Amino acid sequence: MEATRRETWSNIFYWIGVVAAFLTVALVFIGHSKWGSSLERTGFPLAWKLAILSILAFLVREVCRPPRPKNDLKRDKHHSIDHIPHEI
Fold this sequence. Notes:
Blueprint: H1 2-30, H2 37-40, H3 46-64, H4 70-73
Helix pairs in contact: 1-3
């Protein structure tokens, strides 16, 4: 149950980071228009705030990500390069 909850929070923070990153790029482009320049002419632009939110969301996602099971960490010998035939 704990791993499922951590995976859910990890996915939520991932999508927050993705949306914030896209909004950051959009605000940079909109900031060069007449309407958008009012958002970006402040002391601390809104695009920067969204960029920081995006970075923090991706960092929190890495913290919330559940640890990988130990079975996944072992090498699968069937996919090892040693098992490739030499006739190739």
